[in-house]
Amino acid sequence: MANFSRQMRLSSTLLRLLQQRVTAVNSTSSRKFTTTEGHRPTIVHKRSHDILHDPWFNKGTAFSFTERDRLHIRGLLPPNVMSFEQQTARFMADLKRLEVQARDGPSDPYVLAKWRILNRLHDRNETLYYKVLIENIEEYAPIVYTPTVGLVCQKYSGLFRRPRGMYFSAADRGEMMSMVYNWPADQVDMIVVTDGSRILGLGDLGVQGIGIAIGKLDLYVAAAGINPQRVLPVMIDVGTDNEKLLKDPLYLGLQEHRLDGEEYLEVIDEFMEAVYTRWPHVIVQFEDFQSKWAFKLLQRYRNNYRMFNDDVQGTAGVALAGLLGAVRAQGRPMIDFPKMKIVVAGAGSAGIGVLNAARKTMARMLGNTEIAFESARSQFWVVDAKGLITEARENIDPDARPFARKIKETERQRLREGATLAEVVHQVKPDVLLGLSAVGGLFSKEVLEALRHSTSTRPAIFPMSNPTRNAECTPEEAFSIVGDNIIFASGSPFKDVDLGNGHVGHCNQANNMFLFPGIGLGTLLSGSRIVSDGMLQAAAECLAAYMTEEDILKGVIYPSISRIRDITKEVAAAVVKEAIEEDLAEGYREMDSRELRKLDEAQISEFVENNMWRPDYPTLVYKKD
After folding, report:
1. Which residues are CB-neighbours of 120 under 8 A, at least 6 positions away?
2. Shortest CA distance to 289 belongs to which of 353, 228, 344, 385?
3. Which residues make Cβ contacts (< 8 Å) with residue 146, sequence separation at least 6?
4. What residues does 588 pair with on adjacent strands?
5. Quick one: how far is CA 472 from the chain centroid?
6. Are strands 503-505 and 231-237 parallel, antiparallel or unpaired?
């Protein structure tokens, strides 16, 4: 019986979460918490034009007359004091009018024009910027994040107007410990860092990759309520191997080939030591590092620092939530997850991250034994640029080796080393076809027609590569070729498909934004010393259980982005709870670890919500420095 209980741990956890979604009871807690992000006067050490030019404190026309007198700005602004709501409405009206006019000729796409206008607001008034973003998150998340952020990164040298974030380069070796004190904020809660080596599916963009760090942190603020004055985007410029950028006279980064080996590690080590010396409790999210370094850096730092890699761990969590959702949508019990046949196209850092997370979850359901791990391994078929990965391949990537098919298995399935994706799908007849290849159109007509013979009554198709042009297939292609009853989820947003006769093919977005803000916020508020596998698993299980049974049966396995703050709150609460259970939580501000352990689930949720920053103008009080 004890062994059976261990085998059922994951499914029982998910069952409990699902029951909470269905039978949620409105309850009031006797325990109250004062928000640390609440309304209180803010002391500033600048006045006059200086305050108007500071996006952290500038309110524009919303300064009251009392503040205008106190801060010496009466007469520097039009006399009509506008409310926050009036400012928002005015900006939105201007945005709609200027979207097309802002384009710099035919080469400047419509979405990039939107980004430019939003970025100008960000430069002037951060509070208003985040209010606009939060209230219109479904429309503007694709502008500040994927897919538009990919285009922004490609053009960043030309778009750069004023600095945002910090740049550490190979030329700064030996100076980073002092450089980190150039950042004006005494407290930083969240850093997103990239080396620009693998931006989305666009390859090496060098220093221009800082755009992805900025976009991610916009979502940390909008979704997780991280205070925007305590976030820091970072670019580590170790050179670029992009020949076009090396020859571009307008490129803003180091025009030399990338560092490698120990020289590369020395730069990253120096950066990590510097930021954790100044901000010992900061959380660092690694973003878009090439596969060559992603796993190595994760293993190098994860047991000593509060850090995680979103491409490896965040993508894995979101994909895992989708896979568990697909089990529910197929009308199968959750314990059937270890029986699912999954073909994965792509063996980079994201693909391997998904494989490891899914195998670990299957093994937990089967009892966490050596036999369980071997059984879980046998449910995956991995195809990369050279075809099906088997033990017959020479020089297999060490990270992909655990998923190489055995020779006897391939012979039984009439497959071979290097078999094409279409051949693998045709022979395996998988329940799930998952794409993390960054190869647009990889799920060709031949591949999708092969999937029509799936043994599943409701096969799942997950073209998860970003940006949109790198998606392995479109929803129209998937629904028209495979059939109306599929489960579809992509990395970039697509519109639902009209299937006729009043039926809709739902296009789920399997986007990391459903998890990484909650993982970061939960880690921050728990005060956990590390980001553990258990915390990541708790986040994925929470997302998997978020959708109702009614939604799931319609093929909706991921929520709408419009609900992102509520999703993030629940994910963060799940992460905090897991950190407490693993005895990793050390508390946050006045909520020490002992007090944190006394909280029940409702109180943890309240604690999280009360510590989510909201875009409101604080009263500003001048104090001479």
Report:
1. none
2. 353
3. 200, 215, 466, 467, 491, 492, 511
4. 591
5. 20
6. unpaired
pLDDT in tens, 334-365: 899 999 999 999 999 889 999 999 999 999 99
- Give the pLDDT of residue 162: 79
80-to-67, 83, 87, 319, 446 alpha-carbon distances in Å: 14, 10, 11, 50, 64
Helical ranges in 474-532 per DSSP H = 475-482, 516-526
Q: Read off the pLDDT of residues 199-209 as tens digits, 9 standing for 90 and up.
A: 887 899 999 99
The DSSP element (H or E) to which 350 belongs, if any, is helix 349-365
d(CA 245, CA 204): 9
Please, are residues 588 and 527 in contact by the beta-carbon 8 Å criterion?
yes
pLDDT at 273 over 90: yes
pLDDT of residue 488: 97
pLDDT at 254 over 80: yes
Under the banding of pLDDT at 50, 70 and 90, the label for residue 267 is: very high
Alpha-carbon distance of 220 to 236, in angstroms, equals: 20
518 forms beta bridges with: none
Q: What pLDDT, in 10s, does the model give residues 125-166? A: 999 999 999 999 999 999 999 889 999 999 888 888 778 899
Catalytic residues: 145, 216
Q: Which helix (H) or strand (E) holds 506?
A: none
Q: Which residues of 258-293 are buried (b: 16+ CB within 10 A; e: fewer)?
A: bbeeeebeebbebbbebbbeebeebbbbbbbbbbeb
Give the integer Cα–Cα distance in Å for 429 and 419: 15
What secondary structure letter does DSSP report for 42? E
